[in-house]
Amino acid sequence: YNMDISNDERLKKADNEKTPIKFRTFQGPVNLHPTCLAYSSNTVKELGTKLLVFFEKLQTSKVFIRDATVVSPYSVLLFGGDLVVNHIKSNIVLDGWLKFDAPAKVGVLIKLIRQELSRILWEKIEKPTFHSEVSEKVITSVGVLVQTINESAK
C-alpha cells in the first residue's frame, strides 16, 4: 500500500527551484544545512521522500537541521513515536501531528507489528540468548518491508 502524507503543508518545497527545500517540524519550519548530504537535492522527488530524520537542529541566520537522512513512511510508522489510528478519517497520526492517509486496517497492522517488535526486543533484553523462529521471521519480514519500500522510493 502506498501511503500519502496528508499534511503536505508541513513538508513544503519552496516554489523557486533555486531555493533549498524547506521542511517543517512540529516546532516550525527548518532548512537543510548546506553541509548536509541531502542539501544538494533540488526537489523532494530527488530526495525520494518527504520525510527526514535528523540528529541536530541549530539556529544561525535561520533554523537548520544537520545530519539528516531520508526515511520511508513505513520506517517512521514502525519505529516512530505515539501512533493513533483514526478509523473514521482513514488516517494514521504519529506523535499528534504527522498524518498519513491510509485505511484503518493498514494502521491496525502497523500497530500490531510494532507491538510484536517491542515484545521481541524486551525478550532479548531480559534474555540475551533468547531465540525463536517466530521472532526471526518477524524481524526478517520487517527488514524486507523497510528495504523494499526504501528501494522503490529511489
Walk across the major sheet and give the strand order.
1-8-7-6
Give the oligomeric state of the chains in this entry, treating copies of one chain as homo and distinct chains as hetero.
Answer: single chain
**What do the pLDDT scores average to?**
80
Global geometry: globular
3D structure, described in words:
With 154 residues, the protein is α+β, with helices and mostly antiparallel strands. Helix content is 36%, strand content 25%. The protein is built from four helices and eight strands. Strands 1-8-7-6 form a four-stranded antiparallel β-sheet, with helices on one face. A four-stranded mixed β-sheet has the order 2-3-5-4, with no helix packed on it. α2 packs across α3 and α3 packs across α4. The longest helix is centred in the last third of the chain and has 23 residues. The protein starts with a strand and ends with a helix.
Give a quick set of tags describing it:
about 150 residues, alpha+beta, four-stranded antiparallel sheet, four-stranded mixed sheet, 4 helices, 8 strands, disordered N terminus
Concise overview:
The chain has 154 residues and is of the alpha+beta class. It has helices spanning 44-47, 73-79, 104-126, 133-153; strands spanning 4-5, 22-25, 28-32, 52-59, 63-70, 83-86, 91-94, 98-101.
Question: What order do the helices and strands come in, and which of them pair?
Answer:
Elements: E1 4-5, E2 22-25, E3 28-32, H1 44-47, E4 52-59, E5 63-70, H2 73-79, E6 83-86, E7 91-94, E8 98-101, H3 104-126, H4 133-153
Parallel strand pairs: 3-5
Antiparallel strand pairs: 1-8, 2-3, 4-5, 6-7, 7-8
Helix pairs in contact: 2-3, 3-4
